[in-house]
Design brief:
Shape: elongated
Order of helices and strands: HHHHHHHHHHHHHHHHHHHHHHHH
Distance between the termini: 42 Å
CATH class of one domain: Mainly Alpha
Structural class: mainly alpha
CATH topology of one domain: Arc Repressor Mutant, subunit A
CATH architecture of one domain: Orthogonal Bundle
Length: about 450
């Protein structure tokens, strides 16, 4: 399995290396497409807006980051006397490069460590790293009394609980969060887009797809308008998942493809893989095996996410596709980490090991206990399709199945009628229906199906 890495100008660097100019180079995959050309109120596009905001914040504080050694940039950004937005912007740039640990170090070393902006950025990073945010710090963020801070603290708390598999508690924590965030003005919400993204992911995991779609669509509009490039790819991937599960597959495909473009443009590590898993799921819902295969190949070619939950999601999608396509699995789904999506991984493990153990019962118990009916229904549907593929007689009624088994044993219609104590005419009707339902023309073909052979 390949280790996660970031290519191009955002490759992870050591702190002794120089800090690159964070603007996209050239055209190609990183160039803005038609859907990216959203301008902020100051006429800046996403990337230019991010750079310009960093430059303005640095100019106010006498800080020059671009082109300076990273160790010096960190030292300057975390020096006493600088406003909180300086280390926040540096942490966001480090996050876009995929160096989450460096970003957390910046926040840990910064003065004003419990400033709401610093706390929000810290919680966003901890979410990506599968770390549980300290409850006392979440309480301090909520204690500001600002409605957006209260919603942000609860959104981060929800995603943390879901990461631990504590779904009922997460559902309680999430109650009212989408409404609080939706009530915030765009000028406020533009600084709370990481909590919005956590809210969209939470809505997906809690089966509240409508809330996730509404919140994600608004969050993306605001992010593009105000040049928040560090969050657009993550938000788009989360929105794509909600759209897929709401059955809006065409929209989901467009949003996921744009998320991939945004991720490549802004260096959002791991988001390409997550967006591709949404595209794979959409192809499965479309029952398009050729599309599943093509998107599976693209997913295999993508680097694995560093973020734990995303990594597990990508790996289980790969295992599921391999099983559906009849190929060797590149790995086994992780069923040891009991986050809120562990049931999906159990289901995918059943696909990989369909003939060993009763993982299906475990999946049903998990989703029933977690109170996730939509997920349980999809799992039941997947099991039904798998069972149908394994059982050639799945379309027959109980009586038709009995007759088919007697036919396979070589009994005549009269003998079958005697065995079942029914008329010969009734047996003939059953045989006629059996042939039609199985799509065969002769009793010999029925024998082949029952005995596991392909009929001639």
């Amino acid at each position: 399995m390949r280790a996660a890495k970031i290519g191009g100008p955002w490759s992870p660097v050591h702190r002794s290396e120089r800090w690159p100019d964070p603007r996209p180079r050239g055209s190609g995959a990183g160039a803005p497409g038609p859907q990216q050309e959203h301008e902020s109120d100051t006429g800046e596009d996403e990337t230019d807006g991010q750079c310009a905001r960093g430059a303005r914040a640095g100019a106010r504080q006498g800080v020059v980051v671009a082109g300076a050694p990273l160790t010096r940039a960190v030292a300057v950004a975390t020096a006493a006397g600088h406003a909180p937005d300086v280390p926040v912007l540096l942490a966001q740039a480090l996050r876009m490069r995929g160096t989450f640990g460096d970003a957390l170090d910046v926040l840990a070393e910064a003065p004003h460590g419990e400033h709401p902006a610093l706390l929000r950025e810290r919680f966003a990073l901890e979410t990506l790293l599968d770390r549980t945010s300290a409850p006392n710090l979440l309480e301090r963020l909520a204690a500001t009394g600002e409605a957006a801070d209260v919603a942000a603290a609860r959104a981060f708390r929800t995603i943390g609980l879901l990461g631990e598999g504590r779904v009922p508690e997460a559902r309680a924590a999430f109650a009212g969060v989408p409404e609080l965030l939706q009530e915030s003005a765009p000028a406020v919400l533009r600084d709370y887009l990481d909590p919005v993204a956590s809210g969209v992911w939470s809505a997906y995991l809690l089966d509240d797809f409508r809330a996730g779609i509404d919140l994600g669509e608004r969050g993306l509009r605001i992010a593009r308008r105000h040049g928040r490039g560090h969050v657009t790819a993550n938000m788009g991937a989360a929105l794509a998942y909600c759209l897929v599960n709401a059955g809006r597959l065409t929209e989901a495909d467009a949003i996921a493809q744009q998320a991939i473009v945004d991720a490549r443009r802004h260096g959002s590590q791991g988001v390409q893989s997550m967006a591709l898993t949404a595209l794979v799921q959409s192809a499965q819902w479309q029952r398009n095996d050729r599309l599943v295969a093509a998107r599976y190949r693209a997913l295999l070619a993508e680097d694995l996410p560093e973020a734990g939950w995303w990594r597990r999601t990508s790996l289980t999608a790969q295992a599921r596709c391999a099983a559906l396509l009849g190929e060797d699995s590149p790995g086994l789904p992780d069923t040891l980490q009991h986050d809120a999506s562990v049931g999906y991984r159990y289901a995918d493990a059943r696909l990989v090991h369909a003939r060993s153990g009763d993982v299906g019962s475990a999946v049903r118990v998990i989703f029933t206990d977690l109170g996730m009916p939509a997920h349980l229904g999809r799992v039941h549907g997947g099991f039904a399709r798998l069972d149908a593929a394994a059982d050639p007689l799945h379309a027959l009624t109980r009586r038709e199945r009995e007759v088919a088994l007697f036919v396979a044993d070589g009994l005549t219609n009269i003998q079958i009628a005697d065995r079942l104590v029914i008329s010969r005419r009734t047996v003939e009707e059953h045989v006629s229906k059996i042939l039609r339902k199985l799509g065969v023309r002769s009793r010999v073909a029925v024998v082949g199906l029952v005995r596991g052979r392909t009929p001639d």
